[in-house]
Amino acid sequence: MLEVRHLSKSFGDRVAVADVSFVAETGRTLGLLGPNGAGKSTIVNIIAGVLRPDRGEARVHGAAVDSDTSPAKRLVGFVPQDLALYEELSALDNLRLFGSLYGLAGAELDARAASALGVARLSDRARDRVETFSGGMKRRLNIAAALLHEPRVLLLDEPTVGVDPQSRNAIFDTLAELRSGGMTLIYTTHYMEEAERLCDRIVIIDHGRVLADDTLDGLYARLPAHARPVQQVVTVRPTLESVFLELTGHRLRDD
Ligand SMILES: Nc1ncnc2c1ncn2[C@@H]1O[C@H](COP(=O)(O)OP(=O)(O)OP(=O)(O)O)[C@@H](O)[C@H]1O
Ligand SMILES: [Mg+2]
Question: Does the residue 253 lie in any domain?
């Protein structure tokens, strides 16, 4: 289980995250949904131990993630929003490099790299240089890199942005496989349909604050009657977009 308690973080006088708390249950997928600048990356960077909060803490299976050496950090895998790969190395050599940073070596490292490449649907491209990969394949390799140390919680920061539909589906297959293996997923996105499709629970963030924290059905139920489609009981479901608009007064994206 991942627990985030009263996280706050400012950059100068800009408040990025303001008193954010939520709980992600083991084996479930929690979505952090919010527009540009909402604070999603700041939150996951804090959970990953990359950024220090001004206040509050993240706990994984009861242990605080508060420094590079904290044991809880090894329970967390992080797929950052910005890719961190060596273009001139092969996929396999990138994973060997990242694995060695976790103290893995030899046959164990090779076995884990092979397994991670399989989960990321990249086994057939293991020996190709990353510079020959599509944007989607690089994203998938980034996911593989986060799996090498066999984390229990995986943080994914907008993993499908700029990804072609085929890679997007491959990422969804990967996530389904990880979920069925009992991994807890934290998935940040500004795509409503991804949050609706993938997440058991959705935390809606705007201006660094939690506006709602609920299941999809719970979020739909928050809509006042006038905002729900009339035929709702028959076929038409309310949309997450309408919930977001109701809570924030603005659309998630103008496009
Ligand atoms: N290193 C930083 N220095 C200064 N301001 C920052 C820094 N990182 C984030 N911010 C600011 O904090 C706020 C939250 O940013 P954050 O990147 O967490 O949002 P986000 O929800 O991930 O947005 P996006 O959808 O664009 O990735 C924004 O106003 C951003 O400009
Ligand atoms: Mg971000």
Answer: no
Instruction: List, for residues 17-68, the tens digit of each pLDDT value.
Output: 999 999 999 999 999 999 899 999 999 999 999 999 999 999 998 888 876 6
Is the C-beta atom of 40 inside 6 A of ligand 1? yes
Helix (H, G, I), strand (E, B) or coil at 115: helix
Report the C-alpha gap between 195 and 175 in whole angstroms. Answer: 13
Long-range contacts (CB closer than 8 Å, 24 or more residues apart) made by 216-223? 216/240, 219/243, 222/246, 222/247
Find where tokens 């060695």 sit.
100
Which ligand 1 atom sits closest to the C-alpha of 43? Answer: 18
pTM of the model: 0.91
Contact 11 CB / ligand 1 (< 6 Å): yes
Give residue 120's domain range.
Answer: 2-248
Number of domains the chain is built from: 1
d(CA 5, CA 1): 13
Query: Exposed, middle or buried, 123 (CB in 10 Å: 0-12/13-18/19+)?
Result: middle
Is residue 86 included in any domain, yes or no? yes
Kindly identify the ligand whose nearest atom is closest to the C-alpha of 253: 1
Coil, helix or strand at residue 39: coil
Q: Tokens at residue 13, please?
A: 């006088």
